[in-house]
Amino acid sequence: MSEGIIALREGADDARAEIAQMRAASDRRLEELEARVSAFPAYVAHVRASADRAARRGTLRRQALRIVFLAHNKDAWDSIGEVVEIMRASEDFDPVVVSVPHHYGGEAPPRGEGRMHRFLTERGIPHLRLRKDEHMWAEELLRALDPDVVFRQSQWDADVNPAFSADSLGWTRLALIPYETVNPTRNVPWDDPPVDSALDQHWHRAAWLVFCANDDVLEIARHRTLTGGRQFRAVGHPKADALRRAAPFWPFADDAAGPTKVVWSAHHSILDGWNDFGMFPRVKDDMLRWAEEEPDTQFVFTHHPYLRGTIRRPESGLSATDFRDWLDAWNALPNTAYWRGAYAPVLASTDVVITDGPSMITEAQVLGKPTVFLERAEHIEFNDVGKRLVRGVHRVADVAGARSAASEIFVDGDRLAVIQRENADHLFGAPGAAQRIVDTILAEARAEVARG
């Protein structure tokens, strides 16, 4: 009996050992399968990248290069509009503009294509439409167009359909004309690991060509991007040229020469943790008081397109109702206006600019307008371009300082006018940026075809 029990125990031990061996072998097999599955996306990406490179080698051989412009932001049209016009008049190019919906900051559902369509229609610009309820056909549309080069208005992939992302468009050549004239700040780090969001996002890295305003930006790109700025070309900026051409307009019926004219432009970055320039909640009541106390001065309030959306965020500390009540008080004055149209004509007409915006302190100097910079102490650091720019503006901490600086300008003129002219000449050069962009694309395409 005891021998039988011992035999059963030994048999059980042998069975357990065999099961353990089988389990270990199974675990190794599972690990091998998991490793293969984990490696599969990278393998697919590698194959796709190889196929994309092969597809690109077969392009640029048409008599007229087909250039597709994905347009979702009417406020940034001046960065690409003249380029489209020049290409339409040239036998070397076949430009196709497509109005597309946007997803600013990843918001859903997609929207805004109708506004872009109306904007282009009003200006007589031929274009195709990808309506918001057709967004699922984005990739199909673009592949049907078979472009040699694709321009997108924004470097941010989250702004547009995933089919228009840098990764999805590896099969064609990408290009970028930044929507801002020049970036004056050490941009907020983006992604993980962090990159310079103005120069080194995925779109920049994947781009065939990135156009920048001047050699200063080019030098920054050479030191702060993964690609060493190899795809960057310094050509000036079409938006600066559009500003120079702006016909003055002032939104008051009695636009006489007598009243002093002030444009107040507010930036959208009123929250904490981005670039932290926006001062609107801190200065709105003091600006209202200034307008009340100086009835002989005409004030036009305008703002960055994103400001109202930022105000609606709970952390803004300023509700939509608060803004509406303040705006009612502003509009009730006889010497104030709220302007939401194109800002360049108004900027061209004003005597002085009051702003907290990093882009506006640039663009006002292009037009030679005396500029008072309402500077929020905690804003991110200026880069070398920004350090040059702020030499041409009057830096103040509050509205009292702005009133004092404006008063000095009204009486004595702008002591910084010479510096402004030097800044504009240095940063943007002579007019003609759009033509230089078109010439660069054609030259680069021909050189690439010649290389085979």
TrEMBL record:
SUPFAM superfamilies to which the protein is assigned, alphabetical: UDP-Glycosyltransferase/glycogen phosphorylase (SSF53756)
Highest rank taxon of the organism: Bacteria
Protein name per its UniProtKB record: UDP-N-acetylglucosamine 2-epimerase domain-containing protein
Organism: Microbacterium flavum
